[in-house]
């Protein structure tokens, strides 16, 4: 079937001639029916990206069954962690990378992203112990967390059911870029944008009163990223005693 470029020109022209209705919103609607091809929402969102460092080498050196088991177990449990927040709006997989996008209108919502990142770090410890017992290769990850007041639109083609939300702005791009830097070149495996750090550090200090939690982070002045290596103690203790 050939592409009908005459109809294609009409569709593209209709989109370009339409004045999209962009609304400010405190939170991102959960229901996709709130989004049409003619509107958009600008709201505070947060994003977490986690990818496997050096996955290409694992794929080259291991047989297909082992690779499939590692990637499936990794994506399955990362998705389970990312999905524990009521603020989640989208979860996706890109190759060896899993990401979550969240509605983060208030500082406690951004603190929630900090907790999710700590849970992901501890999850990797659990997976690595399971991989080691199976004599599979262990993995290293890079995690990126960022927030921003971004634009959300629905894009695709009407009538085809092929559509998705597109997140336009800093949160998703920054989280992806930070994940690609974390855990590499001597950096710790979780990185936070300055805006994310500034919005959760006060609550983190309250929760761990008496502890200098700022010492948990190293700051890269060139990139503006705060790096850390985090764990959830209760989960970590369970791993030590049960695996």
Describe the structure.
It is a single chain. The chain is an alpha+beta fold and 243 residues long. The chain has one domain (20-238): Alpha-Beta Plaits. Helices cover 42% and strands 29% of the residues. It contains 7 helices and 9 strands; from the N terminus they run H-E-E-H-H-E-E-H-E-E-H-E-H-E-E-H. Strands 1, 2, 3, 4, 5, 6, 7, 8 and 9 form a 9-stranded mixed β-sheet that branches. Helix 3 runs antiparallel to helix 4 and helix 4 packs across helix 6. It is globular and about 60 Å long. 31% of the residues are buried.
Highlighted features:
alpha+beta, globular, 243 residues, Alpha-Beta Plaits, 9 strands, 9-stranded mixed sheet
Could you outline the blueprint of secondary structure elements for this entry?
Blueprint: H1 5-17, E1 21-24, E2 39-53, H2 55-61, H3 64-82, E3 88-94, E4 97-103, H4 107-133, E5 140-157, E6 162-168, H5 170-181, E7 190-193, H6 194-207, E8 217-220, E9 225-228, H7 233-242
Helix pairs in contact: 3-4, 4-6
How many helices in DSSP terms? 7
Which class in CATH terms?
A: Alpha Beta
Helix content: 40-55%
What would CATH call the homologous superfamily? Nucleotide cyclase, GGDEF domain
Short description:
This protein is of the alpha+beta class and 243 residues long. The protein is built from 7 helices and 9 strands; from the N terminus they run αββααββαββαβαββα.
């Amino acid at each position: 079937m050939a592409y009908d470029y005459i109809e294609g020109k009409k569709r593209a022209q209709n989109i370009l001639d339409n004045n999209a209705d962009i609304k400010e919103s405190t939170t991102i609607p959960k229901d996709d029916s709130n989004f049409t091809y003619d509107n958009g929402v600008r709201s505070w969102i947060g994003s977490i990206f986690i990818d496997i460092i050096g996955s290409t080498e694992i794929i080259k050196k291991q047989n297909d069954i082992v690779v499939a088991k590692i990637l499936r177990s990794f994506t399955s449990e990362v998705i389970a962690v990312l999905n524990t927040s009521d603020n989640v709006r989208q979860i996706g997989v890109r190759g060896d990378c899993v990401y979550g996008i969240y509605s983060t209108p208030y500082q406690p919502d951004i603190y929630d992203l900090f907790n999710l990142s700590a849970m992901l770090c501890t999850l990797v410890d659990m997976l690595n112990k399971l991989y080691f017992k199976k004599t599979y290769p262990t993995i290293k990850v890079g995690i990126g967390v960022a927030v921003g007041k971004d634009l959300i639109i629905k894009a695709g083609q009407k009538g085809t059911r092929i559509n998705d939300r597109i997140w336009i702005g800093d949160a998703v791009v920054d989280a992806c870029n930070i994940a690609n830097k974390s855990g590499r070149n001597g950096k710790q495996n979780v990185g936070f944008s300055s805006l994310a750090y500034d919005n959760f550090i006060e609550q983190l200090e309250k929760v761990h009163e008496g502890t200098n939690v700022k010492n948990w982070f190293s700051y890269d002045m060139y990139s503006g990223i705060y790096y850390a290596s985090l764990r959830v103690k209760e989960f970590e203790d369970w791993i030590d005693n049960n695996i």
